[in-house]
Amino acid sequence: MTPMLRQYLEIKEQYKDTILFYRMGDFYEMFFDDAITASRVLGITLTSRSAKDDTNKVPMCGVPYHAVSSYLGKMVRAGYRVAICEQTEDPRQARGIVKREVVRVVTPGVTTEEQILDEKSNCYVCGLVLDKQKKSKVAGLSFLDVSTGEFLVCEHQVDQEYSQVTDELTRMMPAELLLPESLEEPLAPLLDTLTTLLPGLCITWRADLQFDRDTAHTCLTEHFKTSGLEGFGCSDLHTGIRAAGGLLLYIQETQKTDLSHIRRIASLSRGEHLIIDDASRRNLELTETIIGGKREGSLLSVLDLTRTPMGARLLRQRLLFPLQDRSRIQARLDAIQQLLVDPGIRRRLREILDSIYDLERLCSRLSLGQGNARDMTSLKISLARLPEMKEILLELGSGLLFAIGTELDLLTDLYELIHRAIREDAPVSLREGNLIREGYHDELDELLVLVRDGKQLILALEEKERQRTGIPKLKVGYNKVFGYFFEISKIHADKVPEDFIRKQTLVNAERFITPDLKELENRISTAQERRLELEYELFLEIRRQIASHSGRLLATASGIARVDVLCSLAEASHRYHWIKPKLTAGSAITIIEGRHPVIERSLEPGRFVPNDVHLDQETNELLIITGPNMAGKSTVLRQTALLVLMAHIGCFVPADRAEICLVDRIFTRVGAMDDLRRGQSTFMVEMNETANILNNATDRSLVILDEIGRGTSTYDGLAIAWAVAEELADKNGRGVKTLFATHYHELTELARTHTRIQNYSIAVREWNDSIIFLHKLVKGATNRSYGIQVAGLAGVPAHVVKRAHEILKDIEEGEWQKSRQKVRDRKKQPAEKENSTTSQPCQLPLFAPGEDKLHRFLKEIDPDELTPREALNLLYEARKLLSERGRN
């Protein structure tokens, strides 16, 4: 066991759950099990130390330090934590083994590496704590994005299914979850759910002491340098503070550096935002598609025309956190209108935004001591565009954009510091020099002259001594023994000054040194080394100066992101011909010629069929929508929810006119799939989502339901759908605004008994035994689903479609039972014997008998209009029809 391996194992003992990257010269080395794991994940060669001794081989592998970021990305994406162990003393000055220590730990949720992060999404690490209070259990959650400094805290009531906690986690999508060790058993059901909903989530268990209330409070107040947390508006979130304090402790331990860019902690209040649960977010495909989980095809992909990563992340947040504050929404809508009225301003702003880098993550890297000179150059380029942006915003004279412009800090002092100090061609490495401009630091300027012009300085001293001594042949020489020296021929020996020191005598000449020559030689020989050291020191000092202004930097970044989002939404509104919605104080939603914002983009211009929708609390509260599959029922449902949501984030909408009231929640139950990993069938998933809607919807909510009850038998499904519709129409005496698409045509009868329920259908046109979808929502119900025609359009073989038509005709004419008996008789083998002693459970037939002649005859009789004689004749006629049916 060498001293180096002993040191490695001592450090590894402190970081057992990580892969240790151990710095050795120009490489990070890994040994033992870490080497085996890393070589497999990174695809690099596994070698060994002590190769001559086959019984004591130590597995090892390594990666070059200058390319470590790409290897870190691979390890973290594979779910591993990596501890970066650096040399903390100069190997030339070390006695024995060089001192080393871990300088930071990179985890899936705690990283600033560009190769790991998605520039358009936040990378959160979440702390979660449970607290049993007097009457209920409360979950405290805290979210922190180290790469941007965003720090959030909230609390939720805990039910048996952890529904609110699950909704929050799936909305924020953390990459890593911190949990107290004591919760491993109580949280097992939640973790099972999260492994399905958030694949790849990294779970980190921490000692309970890390989440102690006093420890957490002290950690937060010391970091923010405050006496309490009242100024952040979260002092009453006691369980949330435990989660936030434990989370901050974890970040401090892993980053081992100043976290000055984390400037504040904000309360994540549900009351301020329109709530959309996880199922509804997935059904509406807000940020990713249901199938494949792709960004392309989601609402976000249509809205996101941002030019900066900061703007892209903010737009995503706004989509997940729609507002309920009418004044704030209106301010956003008015700002978009300003940008549409003056396209020149919008164009100029977007051109400026194009050249602005990710200030939030630049600030974080610089604050965490990981930023390089190129980061500073990117920061300078970005800051250079701020005066022009501010000037344009102030031209608007009023409104939200004008307010952002008045508050925009140009950070002129930071721009000038970087401009004066940092070379534009500076390399990524901080140890190679060429970082600092000439003219910034006097000593460095002298060193640069020595490095660049050392030979000329020697020659200048030579000429100076010639002039002083009057020896014309005096010249400077050099060898490895004496270094630089003056060589003078013996014929001029009488002219040698007293301050010349004889070092060597030759046949025809003598060699001398002087104090000035030795001083200059020493300065030249050490200039390069001192230059590299001084440039590094100066760079670190400049980086510290910039980091000390992280609050200002982040505030400016926030203003730029807000401008970017407004410009993006204005550009989308211009390109796609969207209109400004009117926010009303009432309870009605009216959309004229509304269009689906995503589907419309996938079709040729003019192909999408727009539709009108009106919902209110009086006569149009619940719309029963019938019609065939593929006709567009789901599209109408989803587009209504999306347009309402877009209005709540302060975005124009695809419609000719839109008057939208504020809603508190949007619920959707559109389609379902088995969740076998959680032991839930399609129908169970459907009922869970339906139960959530019925239990939590209010008269201010918007509910979208598609095909309730289709996952079970016809009669059960119809009964459930009927009861759900009645409940939504009558809930708390006011009901819930609902779009209810169904194939149960019996539900259309509800409109006769409930004044707030209306029937609508999707229009189709029949043509040559086929149908043409008109995709138009029209008033009134339909009693046909055209399923067989749709099957034909889907490519079901013609003979199967023909047989389906025959069976349907039998059903409609009441011949179904007889047709089934004929089929049984035809398939029954002569040798087959029925076991009459076995009684099998029977189920009601799927199809009720159709009308025969007797039924139609009786339906046409009006008893009030009959004379006694006519009634007697009709009775004989009915008896005759009954006899005929018996003979058949």
TrEMBL record:
<dbReference type="GO" id="GO:0006298">
    <property type="term" value="P:mismatch repair"/>
</dbReference>
<feature type="region of interest" description="Disordered">
    <location>
        <begin position="818"/>
        <end position="847"/>
    </location>
</feature>
<dbReference type="Pfam" id="PF01624">
    <property type="entry name" value="MutS_I"/>
</dbReference>
<dbReference type="Pfam" id="PF05190">
    <property type="entry name" value="MutS_IV"/>
</dbReference>
<dbReference type="Pfam" id="PF05192">
    <property type="entry name" value="MutS_III"/>
</dbReference>
<dbReference type="InterPro" id="IPR007695">
    <property type="entry name" value="DNA_mismatch_repair_MutS-lik_N"/>
</dbReference>
<dbReference type="GO" id="GO:0030983">
    <property type="term" value="F:mismatched DNA binding"/>
</dbReference>
<comment type="function">
    <text>This protein is involved in the repair of mismatches in DNA. It is possible that it carries out the mismatch recognition step. This protein has a weak ATPase activity.</text>
</comment>
<dbReference type="InterPro" id="IPR007861">
    <property type="entry name" value="DNA_mismatch_repair_MutS_clamp"/>
</dbReference>
<dbReference type="InterPro" id="IPR045076">
    <property type="entry name" value="MutS"/>
</dbReference>
<dbReference type="GO" id="GO:0003684">
    <property type="term" value="F:damaged DNA binding"/>
</dbReference>
<dbReference type="InterPro" id="IPR007860">
    <property type="entry name" value="DNA_mmatch_repair_MutS_con_dom"/>
</dbReference>
<feature type="domain" description="DNA mismatch repair proteins mutS family">
    <location>
        <begin position="701"/>
        <end position="717"/>
    </location>
</feature>
<dbReference type="InterPro" id="IPR016151">
    <property type="entry name" value="DNA_mismatch_repair_MutS_N"/>
</dbReference>
<keyword id="KW-0067">ATP-binding</keyword>
<dbReference type="InterPro" id="IPR036187">
    <property type="entry name" value="DNA_mismatch_repair_MutS_sf"/>
</dbReference>
<dbReference type="Pfam" id="PF05188">
    <property type="entry name" value="MutS_II"/>
</dbReference>
<keyword id="KW-0238">DNA-binding</keyword>
<comment type="similarity">
    <text>Belongs to the DNA mismatch repair MutS family.</text>
</comment>
<keyword id="KW-0227">DNA damage</keyword>
<dbReference type="InterPro" id="IPR017261">
    <property type="entry name" value="DNA_mismatch_repair_MutS/MSH"/>
</dbReference>
<dbReference type="InterPro" id="IPR036678">
    <property type="entry name" value="MutS_con_dom_sf"/>
</dbReference>
<dbReference type="GO" id="GO:0005524">
    <property type="term" value="F:ATP binding"/>
</dbReference>
<keyword id="KW-0234">DNA repair</keyword>
<dbReference type="InterPro" id="IPR027417">
    <property type="entry name" value="P-loop_NTPase"/>
</dbReference>
<dbReference type="InterPro" id="IPR005748">
    <property type="entry name" value="DNA_mismatch_repair_MutS"/>
</dbReference>
<feature type="binding site">
    <location>
        <begin position="627"/>
        <end position="634"/>
    </location>
    <ligand>
        <name>ATP</name>
    </ligand>
</feature>
<protein>
    <recommendedName>
        <fullName>DNA mismatch repair protein MutS</fullName>
    </recommendedName>
</protein>
<dbReference type="GO" id="GO:0140664">
    <property type="term" value="F:ATP-dependent DNA damage sensor activity"/>
</dbReference>
<dbReference type="GO" id="GO:0005829">
    <property type="term" value="C:cytosol"/>
</dbReference>
<dbReference type="Pfam" id="PF00488">
    <property type="entry name" value="MutS_V"/>
</dbReference>
<dbReference type="InterPro" id="IPR007696">
    <property type="entry name" value="DNA_mismatch_repair_MutS_core"/>
</dbReference>
<keyword id="KW-0547">Nucleotide-binding</keyword>
<dbReference type="InterPro" id="IPR000432">
    <property type="entry name" value="DNA_mismatch_repair_MutS_C"/>
</dbReference>
